[in-house]
Input
Amino acid sequence: MGLRDCGDRPETSQAPAAYLQGIQAIVDLAARFTPRNWNAATPCPEWRAADLAGHLRCIADNFHEYLDEAPESRLSRLMAKNASADSIGRKLARQNAAELAVLPDVSPRDHILAFAESATRYTARLGPLLPLPHHSYRGHLITVAGMGGMACVEWHVHAWDLASALGESYRPDDPEAVLVGWLAGIPHIPVVRDDDPWQSVLKSAGRLS
Output
C-alpha cells in the first residue's frame, strides 16, 4: 500500500466518514514530509514528527489490544481506578514512552504505513460490536462505539500536530463529529467549550489555550 492508497474499502464503507478522514489526513500529510522535516518539532513537546509517526503506530495497535481484551483490558483496569485526568495522563505517557522505545527501527514512513493498515482494520472490526461495553470511568460506561470516537479524536488531533510540524494548519471536514467523538469516548477530560467545535477539541487536547 502506498502512502496515498488508504482509500475506501468495502469492509469500512459503513464507518463514520470523520474516522476514515482522520486516517487519510495523516497519510496525506505524512506523504509530504522529507527526511529533514521528520526531525521537526511538534506541539507535543517531547516528540519530533518522527516520534509522532511511531506513536500513531503504537496507539492504533493498542486499540486492537483493548478491543480484544475488553472489558478487562489494561486500559479498562486503569480507567476503573477512577483516577484524575492528570494521573491517567502520566500513566499513559509512561506507556507511550516505553512502547516507542521498542518499536522496530524503520523509517517514519513505514510507521505511518503500519498505522494506516492497523487503524483501517480496527474500523472494520467495530461494526457488530458498537453497543458492547469497552470500559468505564466514574460510573460512565464507554462502549465500543465510544472508543471509536476516542480513536477519531486521536487521528484528527495528531493530524493537526503533523500539519503544525510542516508549518501548516489543519481542520477536519466535520469538526462537530470529532467533538461528538470526544464526548462519547473521553469522559475523563472535560471539554473546553467554544463556539467552534474544532477549537473546542484543540483546547480540550491542550493544543490551544
